[in-house]
Amino acid sequence: MSRIINPESAGKERNYLTRTVVLAVRELARQREPGAEARDLAAYLALSLRAVGNTIDVSVAAWEKRGYWVKADRFRMDWAWTGHIAEKMKTAILDEDWGTVAALAAHAAQKLGKVNVPMNHRLGKPWAGAWQVLKRE
């Protein structure tokens, strides 16, 4: 019997989300004043960073099963910031605190500085409608 390979792994999802977060931070930095697109971008950052944080335990489970506790803990510590920034970002967006949103977006961009998104990408605009999703939560 052959192995079953899951093409939709947590690592691939995390990679996609981090690339779109970097792209959203770039677009948010280009915004001159808070409008509908800026709200969508900021809401997408909050939602995506929370989703990245949710992929961590799934990735670490295989290492813990094999007894690689140090590697698992180091990976958790490397990505622990995503959940904290996501919650602060959500609060700042709902309070219309754009200074805090800009600071948190810059912090996320700094943490994801090694992520490379080429100018000719195929990611599209995944943040479209994110503000409505965030308001519904």
Concise structural overview:
The protein is mainly α and 137 residues long. It contains six helices and no strands. The protein has helices at residues 10-30, 36-65, 69-79, 81-94, 98-111, 130-136.
**Major beta sheet, specifics?**
none
State the share of residues found in helices, binned by percent: over 70%
User: How many separate domains?
Assistant: 1
- End-to-end Cα distance: 44 Å
Rg is 16 Å
What overall geometry do the principal axes of the alpha carbons give? globular
Beta content comes to: under 5%
| E-strand count | 0
Average pLDDT figure = 87
So how many helices? 6
Which stretches are poorly predicted, pLDDT < 50 over at least 5 residues?
none
The topology string of helices and strands comes to HHHHHH
Quickly give the structural class. Answer: mainly alpha
Entry keywords:
single chain, 137 residues, mainly alpha, 6 helices, globular
Could you explain how this protein is built, in words?
The chain is mainly α and 137 residues long. The protein has one domain. Helix content is 71%, strand content 0%. The chain has six helices and no strands. The longest helix is centred in the middle third of the chain and has 30 residues. The chain is globular and about 55 Å long.
